[in-house]
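chain below, 204 aa
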Amino acid sequence: MVEIMGRRERKKLQSKNTILAAAVSQFMAKGVRETSIADIMGTAELGIGTFYNYFESKEALLLCLLEQIVDEAKETSKDLMEKKRPAAETLSAVMLKTAEQLDANRFVLPLFLSVSDRTATPMKKMMPRPKMAPAFKAVFVELVKYGQARGEFRSEISAELVTEMFHSIFQAASFSALPYSFIDNVRLKIELLMDGLKPRHHVK
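prediction:
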């Protein structure tokens, strides 16, 4: 029985991954708005009804893709912290990893920014946040506290406030009209904010 259930679960996972891969292919080719569920399932060579076994809507599918980016950020963060890498290096690496993933999957970026706005503004009560909003901020808060505990980041500033600043980098880079690529824009802003995180040594 265990073996049969194992096969069934593997088949379900394979179908879900096939749908996700098909969606990425269609989003890249046509854009999210122009891509229908029928387009996705046609590319996946699965029936349209199968889509709803895994996702409620296209937005739910996009959130799943966004969750995968969160998982990669978490893995990068966990790996570097276990290796006891400097906090600034770790935070920068996670930020740039996230930026690279968002840049490679631009169709996810609008939803990422939408989730960011709805979780950070007073309007959030009027604008319901999407279900399963990816916990990017939780990853960053943990990293900032990691740096504060090691004495590498200023401890008099709340980790949540610092996280908001770093989180806003993605939005600023997305709408920037400056002659920098998205990745370079994010990288330069990270470097500037990192200087402000260094502990201040007062001279008596």
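The radius of gyration is 20 Å. Confidence is low (pLDDT under 50) at residues 117-133.
thats it, cya
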